[in-house]
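re: ur msg from earlier - yeah i can do the S-adenosylmethionine complex, just paste it... oh wait u already did. ok heres what im feeding in:
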Amino acid sequence: MESKWVKAFYKRQFEMFAYLDEYSEHYLDLAKEIEQQVNQPFQSVLEIGAGNGHLAKTLASLGKDVTTVELVPELVDFARQDEPKGVTSICASFYDVDLNDSFDVLLYIDGFGVDGDDEQLYLLKRISQWLKLNGVGLIDIYNPTYWKKAAGQTMSIDPSKSVLRKYDYDQENHRMIDTWWEEGAPHDTYTQSLACYKSSEIENLCLQAGLKIVDWYPGGAMDWDEWTYYPKSSLKDCLSYRIKIVKA
Ligand SMILES: C[S@@+](CC[C@H](N)C(=O)[O-])C[C@H]1O[C@@H](n2cnc3c(N)ncnc32)[C@H](O)[C@@H]1O
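and the outut:
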């Protein structure tokens, strides 16, 4: 069901930056922020699109039981190294993984919007089924206002500045486009594209899936004039915002 670019892009991204995929204090800050945003006691967590698994390991270190679902086998193999008790890593697509369980908390940190509205709605319906009756979901959503302004910006990604990226915006389908290439090979590109949603649009999609948004947490934003990244911004200006969802 997932678009063709997805597996290839995230596998390539991991191959290029595995050497940067070290654990950092950032994950403890993120885990604590998640605890605050959930704002009720919880034990079981389902993290989808889990990437390198560092967040799951950190949540396990705080005593949580975490199941992860990640599509790219190389990322799952990486996550399984030194996997602590309390983490179960599943290599599968969130569109068809078979989970006979429900969870206190559902996380999709960075990455929502890989496919079209129909697929996103299908996924939200699955999320609703995975949540316990009083469970809570946290999902990061890309903000169209930010990404329209970002179109045309080019920058380097890694510390050695050998990989470059250019942002674009698909006005018709409301998707941010992020194209990467290695310096000296500008024609050998790989691209990710993520759907962006205004607050009213994601609210509507959630309602169709039987989910209600009960809180909003804006993330950071790049100031393109000052060329400075600010880690906290407004809902209007942020790069992405996190929604807190419950069963409607
Ligand atoms: C932008 S990355 C974010 C990774 C991690 N959550 C983080 O914040 O670092 C999105 C992740 O979602 C995964 N993903 C995309 N489509 C998926 C699918 N259908 N099923 C499971 N994982 C998927 C990708 O492979 C990638 O690792």
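cool cool. The helical segments are 4-17, 25-38, 54-61, 73-80, 117-130, 144-150, 199-208. ping me if u need the other ligands too
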